[in-house]
Amino acid sequence: MRILGVDPGLTRCGVGVVEGVAGRPLTMLGVGVVRTPADAEIGVRLVAIEQGLEAWLDEYRPELVAVERVFSQHNVRTVMGTAQASAVAMLCAARRGLPVALHTPSEVKAAVTGSGRADKAQVGAMVTRLLRLAEPPRPADAADALALAICHIWRAPAVNRLQQAHAAARASRIPTTTPARKVTR
Predict the structure, then answer these.
(1) In this predicted model, what pLDDT tens digit does every residue of 68-117 receive, in sequence order?
(2) Of 41, 68, 107, 144, which is the active-site residue?
(3) Residue 144 falls in the annotated catalytic set
(4) Which of 3, 16, 37, 151 could be joined to 108 by an S-S link, Cβ 3.0–4.6 Å?
(5) What's the CA gap between 58 and 79, in Å, rounded?
(6) What's the CA gap between 3 and 66, in Å, rounded?
């Protein structure tokens, strides 16, 4: 499974590609950041993010894109920029017919470190260890993108089994209908 992880942001949009399956060693194929100038117009910044993500999609050909789910913050301006960058990532994936998985920051932290309250340094350290890297990816947005990809690879089998179980339960509860009878008067 090859996953492109995206840690959305307007100034720094972290991207990382991880390949592997749950229970086996994972391999980092690429990591980086798509940067935009903070003083540029919002439309120009979003186009730059789109172009950067498209280049990553072209180069690495992932099977799925894992994006950090935007969560409520006190700073509305920050959450709006994150949401806009997140939407660009989802659009790029959808345009190519790639599935998108959304993971909350606490889900990612818990999957990678064992604690949903881990700080950025702990996430970076575990990403470094799990991917057998010489040093933590910099900036933290890049490490977070790799953590998203790792989280999805590890969680996907369990999530798929859970979805299948829910679907089977729903199917068993659906009453069979009998054909409508013709009413004559």
Answers:
(1) 998 766 777 778 889 999 999 999 999 999 999 999 999 999 999 999 99
(2) 68
(3) no
(4) 151
(5) 28
(6) 7
